[in-house]
Design brief:
10 helices; Rossmann fold; 6-stranded parallel β-sheet; 2 domains; 5-stranded parallel β-sheet; alpha/beta; 278 residues
């Protein structure tokens, strides 16, 4: 384990597998976040999961004992909507997604269609209602009409569940579309892409080197931090296992490796606060 020797001004936390797993906070998460806020550190939560809007994530965190305003949550519903408004405001899009993303696009005035003849952008996202009909529409828009681009909300292969289980995530939808069309996904607005990091840093308003990115996955939040030259910490309560780090080249390692998230606080301060590991 490698733990920080100082506190940072900003903390960018992944959610699933980092702050909570299922409907339970992970050990040390509550006291850590509350203490950071007490010390007036910037705390922002980020997630690649587009199945809820920021308001729902804020509600969940609040119910778990971490009162959180929606403005402190950034997910791929936010980043996809923002990216389209900034780069393709007139595009007709076909979101293979769940309702939160569709609602956000609708509220932003982005036109959606299931007509392959007029679709400019196919959005592959986490969609638990994915079916062959949706794949056919994407196929026709991209392969037959040769007009649509393929983008995704996030590159995650699966979403972790308690008990070691999981559920196929957006990468499965991307893979299905790429396999039948021969197209390649052109844009990802989730971790590790800099689109998400820019959104977060604009919100935080700090120098990237004064912030630490904390997550449980090497290929999303940790990769994002490494690419940006930001400090990073992986917590071994979700996707990453110690053997995964053994298999990775040193240049892919985060600055810190934590057995539990409250070890982000240096040991001397944990003792000062009277924190003991349960």
């Amino acid at each position: 384990m490698k733990t920080p020797e100082r506190l940072y001004e900003g903390y960018l936390f992944d959610l699933d597998g980092t702050i909570y797993l299922g409907d339970e906070l992970l050990p040390g998460a509550k006291r850590l976040v509350l203490k950071l806020r007490e010390l007036e550190k910037k705390v922002v939560f980020l997630t690649n999961n587009p199945t809820k809007d920021p308001e729902r994530y804020a509600e969940k965190l609040t119910k778990l004992g971490l009162e959180t305003p929606p403005e402190e949550v950034v997910n791929t519903v936010v980043t996809m909507t923002g990216w389209l408004l900034q780069n393709h405001p007139e595009a007709v899009v076909y979101p293979i997604s769940e309702d939160p993303l569709k609602n956000s696009l609708r509220e932003a005035g982005i036109r959606m269609s299931e007509n392959p003849e007029e679709i400019d952008i196919v959005i592959a996202s986490y969609d638990r209602g994915f079916e062959y009909r949706k794949l056919q529409i994407a196929f026709d828009a991209i392969w037959f009409h040769k007009r649509a681009r393929l983008v995704t909300t996030n590159p995650d292969r699966y979403c972790p569940f308690p008990g070691g289980r999981g559920e196929p995530d957006a990468a499965a939808i991307v893979g299905a579309i790429e396999a039948c069309t021969g197209a390649r996904c052109e844009v990802n607005v989730g971790k590790p892409d800099p689109i998400m990091l820019k959104t977060i840093m604009d919100l935080v308003g700090l120098d990237p080197k004064d912030c630490v990115v904390v997550g449980d996955r090497l290929y999303t939040e940790i990769r994002m931090a490494l690419d940006a030259g930001m400090p990073s910490a992986v917590v071994l309560t979700g996707d990453t296992r110690p053997e995964d780090l053994d298999e990775e080249p040193e240049e892919n390692h985060p600055d810190y490796v934590l057995s539990r998230i409250d070890h982000l606080v240096p040991g001397n301060l944990r003792r000062e606060f009277g924190w003991a590991d349960a």
